[in-house]
Amino acid sequence: MTATMTLTTTTAAETGADAAVSTSEHADLLESLARHRWFLRFTVRDLTDEQARQRATVSALTLGGLIKHVTNVERLWIDFVLRGADAFADGFRAWEGEFELLESETLASALERYEEVARRTDEIVGGIQDLGVGHRLPEAPWFEPGASWSARRVLLHLIAETSQHAGHADIIRESLDGARTMG
Fold first, then answer.
1. Which tens digits make up the pLDDT trace of 26-64?
2. Cα torsion through 110, 116, 118, 119, rounded to 10
3. Residues whose CB falls within 8 Å of the CB of residue 54, separated by 6 or more in sequence, listed in order
4. 14 or 169: which leads in pLDDT
5. Are 46 and 80 in contact, with CB atoms under 8 Å apart?
6. Which is it for the CA torsion 80, 86, 91, 97, positive or negative?
7. 56-70 pLDDT, tens digit each
8. SS3 track for 127-138
9. What is the pTM of this model?
10. Burial zone of 107 (CB within 10 Å; 0-12 exposed, 13-18 middle, 19+ buried)
11. Which fold has domain 36-177?
């Protein structure tokens, strides 16, 4: 049996879409990233610093640690967009201590830092003319040798990373006190 597929095109009028409404790819990607950042920040609402440091599952992840990690990941990858693999000159060692909100740190200060990094990302991405321009990735076991990522690919990675960790945070928060991000 052979299946036949027909490709049809439709106009904005046929779909009910507003042809006059258009957004740039930059705006679409940044809006998606902003939405997932919001979910992550909303998950830690009304927590004390002690709760933000608390392990609520068998995982070593904490809510404060997730905020720190996502902040550092976003900063590092945007540095990669600007400078290429040199952004990873220190390797990935810096990531070892970022999953923990230290006693000398507060959730409020971690969230402030996250907001600063988000503003920087939005500003830098808004100024990139071609999201297709990229750099070679650093050598690491989890990257294909010789692979390159464009600014677009980095943004897609940041959206996925932020979304994934927002889900982790939701599980941890519900385990802590029953609060959920949605529902």
1. 999 999 999 999 999 999 999 999 999 999 989 889 999
2. 160
3. 62, 63, 176
4. 169
5. no
6. negative
7. 989 889 999 999 999
8. CCCCCCCEEECC
9. 0.85
10. buried
11. Four Helix Bundle (Hemerythrin (Met), subunit A) (1.20.120)
